[in-house]
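Researcher: Please generate the 3D structure of the following complex. Treat every line as part of one assembly.
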Amino acid sequence: MKATCWMGPQKMVVQDVPDPSILNQRDCIVKVSSTAICGSDLHLYNGFLPLMESGDIMGHEFMGEVVEVGREVRNLKIGDRVVVPFTISCGNCAACEAGAFSICENSNPNAYIAEKMLGHSGAGIYGYSHLTGGFAGGQAEYVRVPFADIGPLKVPDGLTDDQVLFLSDILPTGYMAAEMCGIKPGDTVAVWGCGPVGLFAIASAYMLGAERVIAIDRFNYRLRKAQEQADAITINYEKVDSVQAVLNDLTAGRGPDHCIDAVGMEGHSHGIQYMNDRAKQMLRIHPDRPIALREAILACRNGGTVSVIGTYAGFIDKFPINAVMNRSLTIKSGQCHVQRYMKPLLERIQNGDIDPTFVISHHMSLSDAPEAYRIFNRKEENCEKVVLQA
Amino acid sequence: MTSIKYKSTGSGQTGTAASSSALPNRTHSDDSNLQRYQHISDERRGTGGRNMADALGYFSIALGLAEALAPVTMSRMVGIREPSGSGRRMMRAMGMREIATGVGILSSYRPRNAVRARVAGDIMDLAFLTRTLVRPTNGESRNGKLRPRVFRNDKHSADKGRVLFATANVLAVTALDIQTARQLARQPDTRTSQQRKKGMIIVRRSITVNKPISEVYKFWRDFGKFPGFMRHLQSVTMLGESRSHWIAHGPAGKRIEWDAEIVEDVPDKLISWRSLPGSDVYNAGTVELQEAPGGRGTEVRVTLEYDPPFGRLGSKAAKLWREEPTQQVEDSIRQFKVMIETGEVLLSDATKQRGPHAAQPNYEPAD
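Model: Done. Output below.
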């Protein structure tokens, strides 16, 4: 089969690899109909996430048709159309039973590596380095899905791939970012980053009752999307002297009630602090540039919530812990517990509360994946979200 | 609002541990697994020695760097006004010695011997300073036959005041070194380090599983299941109620076999087994079970000890290929959890094979 393989930083190749097979009896094999490139894939593309091997198959957002099922999978049959959550979760451990699927205790066969780096291990993830298990990803014609009796969601007839594909990651992820804020009527939410997750966080904040949502980015095409299609107030941080001053003005000095970091480890800025972060990242001292996170913490109102949904990979410095402690801030974070949100969000799509297709900017063929990575990474052609079709 | 009432312990007097508790309403837990760690605060263990040893380690490195990089300045500081070439070399050598002992202290968990080496170094330093004090020109002879060693000439003889000051400092540090060495020596050996001295390896791993204690006990009691989650085992056959025959993959494709017997078996609490005398490889294991608090399932504590093939050096070499027994055992315990909770040990495309593999399907059989 054809699959998108990581061969080194900024080197993606679509090549022929063996077809996947059932390895465990709770597996199924999915013939991929649509798959997408996630913003977090760009961290792998740029080589900032550790523990990649040349030849790793990429991709954790995918859907398709079940073509083979293991003995223990009783809820799926061949021919079912499913969308698959990016977190691999067993459904049996204490975390899964509590609905915290992304910290499943059993789905990372490389947990011993994660334990050394993170203290404890989270769930396995498709195509997302060997730190999260070394699972082949879904930017391919076929993919093996472990614990298929727990993860995949059957798609009702009458919904297109584009409408439901993002249930695999970015729609629940953006939704969880907003949900972690605990939004109350009248609240103002500020969202750093207008990539697809940021856009869904904006839309979700409104769905959860926010009064106003402020979006921060540096690309006008992304801000326009946030403003026109998700009703956000926008700030281009490269065009203002101080984001914090603008936020203080918009909220009459209070600061936003909740701040969402939908940027993560490759934030941009200017000045000495940015050069320092950039240099440390190049020298592999720190893999992260936590620019948005620092700004979100300082901007947040006293007693407010900082929701961290952007991806981080290591250790950070200049972390404003003084602001967090002395101003009673709450920091919430986590990989999305996708399985918890898929069904309710599917209902919202069916009810017409949200149309997730608005984030899509490009449809391309799987064999064009290397080009898709290039334009998405360089933000060329107003690239917001690429959907690849096999 | 209810307030917490603290029991009075009298005027500044500390009562017994029970009566001085700040939480009089809390029933004391007699969890033996917790008590195991209570002795950490026992002052006879001399845990303070560890912190002082670290401080001495850093001090050694700092002083050593100064001596090695700026021997002239350092010589002047201890009262030698104009050190000769050999004097500078000696100062450098002393610096290297300091760095070596410093690294030794910081890189060891129980740096008793490294601190003792510091005491020996202190004695050398004191001898050097005493000599400088007694013969300030260091052999600059009246008849001109003895060659000068540390000092060039009479004009540049040692500054007595500085030498005395340096000597006092070294004496103070020596006292600290001796005290730290004694404190460290009081630390008893842990069970692991006792076994290590005998060339034995002990691995202990604790894990919580989301299953009732009786099910976990039944799982461990059936040794035939072990190869399912212990990759290094080929098979285990029960030969009766308490005897079993084990076959393991040894290093370099060798097959290792032994018989084992259960030495202790308390349902829902403990299973302990060991290889019978005359086995190729001595090994023993204990599984302790306990209900996890608040309905969290079962706490499982596994201790395995064995005599590694080819000794400890062999196991160090095996580490390079991730075949190291300690790592294998730790992986096994985690896989036990995956197996009992999900029914099967989970494989991924990369971990299906041993060693680094790309995360993509391959047709090679799993090993």
